[in-house]
Design goal:
This protein starts with 10 loop residues before the first strand and ends in a 7-residue tail after the last strand. The protein has a single domain, classed as Aminopeptidase. It is an alpha+beta fold. The protein is built from 4 helices and 7 strands, in the order E-H-H-E-E-E-H-E-H-E-E. Helix 1 (21-33) packs across helix 2. It binds coenzyme A (COA). The site of coenzyme A has 20 residues, from strand 4, helix 3 and helix 4. Coenzyme A binds at residues 31, 37, 96-98, 103-109, 131, 135-138, 140-141, 144.
Length: 180
Amino acid sequence: MGAVEDGAQRLRIREGSPRDALELLTLRRDVLAEGRWFIGTEVDRTLEQEIRNIAALKASLTQALLVARLDGRLVGMVSLTNPPFRRTQHVVKLEIMVEEASRGQGIGKALLEAALDWAEAAPVAKIGLNVFADNARALALYRSLGFAEEGRRSREYRMEDGTWRDDVLLYRFVGGEEPL
Ligand SMILES: CC(C)(COP(=O)(O)OP(=O)(O)OC[C@H]1O[C@@H](n2cnc3c(N)ncnc32)[C@H](O)[C@@H]1OP(=O)(O)O)[C@@H](O)C(=O)NCCC(=O)NCCS
């Protein structure tokens, strides 16, 4: 995995390793605790499970985990995963997060570009993802890199305050695959 670096060579993006597990869990815990971007609000795995999960992604040809480090500190991640069915091996589900203090500086875009580079070279044909309809920053980022809407699930989620959220499904074909 090639490193992506900004002008001052502070940002590096590379494949995740089991050594990243603790920092990844901390990032996930903090972002989920914001309560605004994902369905879950709490981390649902132990450190041991996270280590095993990272090792499994590393060993898989059709899945990946990339981490972003800014001055050596883990500030973001993107994962591309799929369930263990032969009929869905060509589709990966993308999940991305950047720590709150480091957003809006191009790290998410760099992570997504690196994820697309990985997908173009991997034996996968389609990236799919779900995003809350009011997550304007994530939607703008996905659309700017070629993701298109393939559906919307109205009032799919009900928040703790009683408000509804729509779920938007986005996709992008990769590896020369064209829409039917
Ligand atoms: C979504 C997320 C990964 C984007 O990462 P980021 O580092 O903040 O985004 P970037 O700085 O790379 O900006 C990428 C694009 O987002 C858009 N963007 C950035 N800030 C924005 C804002 N405040 N409002 C709307 N769009 C914005 C722009 O299109 C930008 O591209 P541009 O700089 O070429 O114009 C990050 O904000 C995040 O982790 N958010 C919380 C978790 C989350 O929402 N994950 C996705 C769930 S589906």
